[in-house]
Amino acid sequence: MTIALLAIGLFAGTLAALLGVGGGIVYVPGLVVILGLSQHVAQGTSLAVIAPTALIATIVHHRGGRVMWPIAIPVSIGAAVGAYVGASFALTLEGPVLEKMFAVVLAALSVLMWVKAGPREQPTATPQESGPQ
User: Which residues, 6 or more positions from 9, have their beta carbon under 8 angstroms from its beta carbon?
Assistant: First the structure.
Protein backbone atom coordinates (compact mmCIF):
# COMPACT_ATOMS: atom_id res chain seq x y z
CA MET A 1 0.00 0.00 0.00
CA THR A 2 2.89 2.39 0.69
CA ILE A 3 4.13 2.00 -2.89
CA ALA A 4 0.64 2.83 -4.21
CA LEU A 5 0.47 5.90 -1.98
CA LEU A 6 3.89 7.09 -3.14
CA ALA A 7 2.95 6.48 -6.78
CA ILE A 8 -0.30 8.44 -6.43
CA GLY A 9 1.57 11.27 -4.71
CA LEU A 10 4.34 11.35 -7.32
CA PHE A 11 1.89 11.35 -10.22
CA ALA A 12 -0.41 13.96 -8.69
CA GLY A 13 2.41 16.19 -7.50
CA THR A 14 3.99 16.15 -10.94
CA LEU A 15 0.69 16.97 -12.65
CA ALA A 16 -0.14 19.64 -10.08
CA ALA A 17 3.15 21.46 -10.62
CA LEU A 18 3.24 20.86 -14.38
CA LEU A 19 -0.35 21.82 -15.21
CA GLY A 20 -1.25 24.09 -12.32
CA VAL A 21 -3.99 21.82 -11.02
CA GLY A 22 -4.61 21.31 -7.35
CA GLY A 23 -3.79 17.64 -7.53
CA GLY A 24 -7.27 16.64 -6.41
CA ILE A 25 -8.14 15.57 -9.94
CA VAL A 26 -5.62 12.78 -9.45
CA TYR A 27 -5.59 12.26 -5.68
CA VAL A 28 -9.33 11.82 -5.22
CA PRO A 29 -9.90 9.26 -8.00
CA GLY A 30 -6.68 7.48 -7.04
CA LEU A 31 -7.67 7.22 -3.40
CA VAL A 32 -11.20 6.09 -4.26
CA VAL A 33 -10.46 3.70 -7.13
CA ILE A 34 -7.06 2.31 -6.18
CA LEU A 35 -7.25 2.35 -2.38
CA GLY A 36 -11.01 2.00 -1.97
CA LEU A 37 -11.45 5.02 0.32
CA SER A 38 -14.83 6.67 0.60
CA GLN A 39 -15.33 9.87 -1.38
CA HIS A 40 -15.46 11.95 1.82
CA VAL A 41 -12.23 10.50 3.20
CA ALA A 42 -10.51 10.76 -0.20
CA GLN A 43 -11.47 14.43 -0.54
CA GLY A 44 -10.34 15.29 2.99
CA THR A 45 -7.06 13.40 2.53
CA SER A 46 -6.52 15.02 -0.87
CA LEU A 47 -6.93 18.49 0.58
CA ALA A 48 -4.41 17.74 3.33
CA VAL A 49 -1.91 16.45 0.78
CA ILE A 50 -2.40 19.38 -1.60
CA ALA A 51 -1.10 21.92 0.94
CA PRO A 52 2.59 20.92 0.76
CA THR A 53 2.32 20.29 -3.00
CA ALA A 54 0.96 23.78 -3.58
CA LEU A 55 3.50 25.37 -1.24
CA ILE A 56 6.50 23.85 -3.02
CA ALA A 57 5.13 24.59 -6.50
CA THR A 58 4.31 28.18 -5.46
CA ILE A 59 7.87 28.73 -4.21
CA VAL A 60 9.32 27.44 -7.49
CA HIS A 61 6.94 29.55 -9.61
CA HIS A 62 7.54 32.62 -7.43
CA ARG A 63 11.30 32.27 -7.90
CA GLY A 64 10.64 32.19 -11.65
CA GLY A 65 8.57 35.38 -11.42
CA ARG A 66 5.34 33.65 -12.42
CA VAL A 67 3.06 34.47 -9.48
CA MET A 68 0.88 37.57 -9.63
CA TRP A 69 0.51 38.25 -5.89
CA PRO A 70 -2.04 41.09 -6.31
CA ILE A 71 -4.31 38.46 -7.87
CA ALA A 72 -3.27 35.46 -5.76
CA ILE A 73 -3.89 37.06 -2.37
CA PRO A 74 -7.54 38.12 -2.78
CA VAL A 75 -8.37 34.94 -4.68
CA SER A 76 -6.86 32.86 -1.86
CA ILE A 77 -8.93 34.72 0.73
CA GLY A 78 -12.08 33.94 -1.25
CA ALA A 79 -10.90 30.36 -1.70
CA ALA A 80 -10.40 29.93 2.05
CA VAL A 81 -13.96 31.04 2.75
CA GLY A 82 -15.23 28.87 -0.11
CA ALA A 83 -13.27 25.90 1.22
CA TYR A 84 -15.00 26.18 4.59
CA VAL A 85 -18.44 26.45 2.96
CA GLY A 86 -17.71 23.65 0.47
CA ALA A 87 -16.29 21.25 3.05
CA SER A 88 -19.22 21.87 5.39
CA PHE A 89 -21.67 21.24 2.55
CA ALA A 90 -19.81 18.11 1.41
CA LEU A 91 -20.30 16.58 4.85
CA THR A 92 -24.07 16.85 4.45
CA LEU A 93 -24.05 14.82 1.22
CA GLU A 94 -24.03 11.06 0.84
CA GLY A 95 -20.90 9.53 -0.69
CA PRO A 96 -22.42 8.43 -4.01
CA VAL A 97 -23.94 11.88 -4.55
CA LEU A 98 -20.59 13.50 -3.87
CA GLU A 99 -18.82 11.09 -6.25
CA LYS A 100 -21.26 11.95 -9.05
CA MET A 101 -20.90 15.68 -8.40
CA PHE A 102 -17.11 15.33 -8.54
CA ALA A 103 -17.30 13.43 -11.84
CA VAL A 104 -19.71 15.94 -13.39
CA VAL A 105 -17.52 18.90 -12.42
CA LEU A 106 -14.40 17.22 -13.82
CA ALA A 107 -16.18 16.37 -17.08
CA ALA A 108 -17.66 19.87 -17.46
CA LEU A 109 -14.33 21.57 -16.80
CA SER A 110 -12.61 19.23 -19.24
CA VAL A 111 -15.07 20.12 -21.99
CA LEU A 112 -14.77 23.85 -21.28
CA MET A 113 -10.98 23.70 -21.40
CA TRP A 114 -11.04 21.59 -24.58
CA VAL A 115 -13.29 24.13 -26.29
CA LYS A 116 -11.25 27.11 -25.06
CA ALA A 117 -8.00 25.51 -26.21
CA GLY A 118 -9.30 25.19 -29.78
CA PRO A 119 -7.21 26.12 -32.79
CA ARG A 120 -5.28 29.34 -32.43
CA GLU A 121 -3.55 31.40 -35.04
CA GLN A 122 0.20 31.04 -34.97
CA PRO A 123 1.97 34.40 -34.94
CA THR A 124 4.11 35.01 -37.99
CA ALA A 125 7.71 35.89 -37.33
CA THR A 126 8.89 39.34 -38.26
CA PRO A 127 12.14 39.58 -40.30
CA GLN A 128 14.03 40.45 -37.10
CA GLU A 129 12.68 37.36 -35.27
CA SER A 130 13.23 34.95 -38.14
CA GLY A 131 17.00 35.32 -38.09
CA PRO A 132 19.48 36.16 -40.84
CA GLN A 133 18.12 36.15 -44.37
Answer: 27, 49
Q: Which amino acid is at 14?
A: T
Contact by Cβ (8 Å): 49, 23: yes
- The Cα-based distances of 3 to 7, 35, 53, 90 in angstroms read 6, 11, 18, 29
Per-residue pLDDT for 130 more than 50? no
pLDDT one-digit tens code per residue, 24-80: 888 898 899 999 999 999 999 999 988 888 899 899 999 999 999 999 999 999 989
Structural domain boundaries in the chain = 2-116
Q: What is the pTM of this model?
A: 0.71
DSSP-assigned letters across all residues of the chain: -HHHHHHHHHHHHHHHHHH---SHHHHHHIIIIIT---HHHHHHHHHHHHHHHHHHHHHHHHHTT---HHHHHHHHHHHHHHHHHHHHHHTTS-HHHHHHHHHHHHHHHHHHHHHHT---PPPPPPTTTT---
Residue length, the chain?
A: 133
